[in-house]
Amino acid sequence: MVGVVTESTADIPAEMAERLGIAIVPSYVVFGSQTYLDGVELSKEEFYAKIGTSRIIPTTATPPPTTYEVIYRRLAETTDEIVSIHLAGNLSALYEVAQVAARNVPQARIAVLDSQQVTMGYGWLVVAAAEAARRGESLDQIVSLVEELKNRTRVLAVLDTLDFLHRGGRVSWARALIGTLLRIKPIIEVRQGQVTLLERARTRRRSLQRLVDQIKALGPLERAIVLHTNAPAEAQWLSGQLEALLEGWQPLTTRAGVTIASHVGPGAVGVACITRE
User: I need a labelling partner for 123 at 20 to 30 A (CA). Which of 56, 83, 192, 227 fits?
Assistant: First the structure.
């Protein structure tokens, strides 16, 4: 069976990752002079407690190639094919590091893929790959599946602030608009590696309603999950809206992990989804 690897930044619910046998590489979260392994040395609860009381805006750091090599070699003991799916390459160095690591593990054929997505946007790709692996599909078949799904995968979200995205430095329009959007709630979309500003709403309530409209405009969805960075009430409201909107959708909501929260800040709420063909 093909082994499946990703990072903690994919925000795949723990029980789902365990059930599907997905190997997770923890990323690093940096608070000032302190560095933590995401989900290992710093839980979501501890992170959100820190971000709520500290003036320090956290950053993220990339694990060394050896971290990936250890997991690749462990999997290579039981399989000679591995698919490794990573955070958008133009938003992070994780993809490049995984490529380096794969070249150092000749014991297995390793396909390292740039998801062009963030959080559960690429978490869904990993889940689909793991499900295909369990069906007995080959590495080439799984790579083809992931490449096809990438075109139909989106993350849409309302941010409470642009400050975190601006300080991350990887989204140019966030720098340009930081001074003009102090009292505006931006609605963003991540698709094929690009972070796009869709709309600017003047109130939180209006932004959430427009988010629902944007999701509705996507048409039928194959998969969807509501994500939030410590905004449970809004996430519950959005989940209720989607349940009424999407036929047969089983409500699925999770608090986003510490890595994505470091880049978008608290109070964000959105959906990661794959549209139907």
Answer: 56
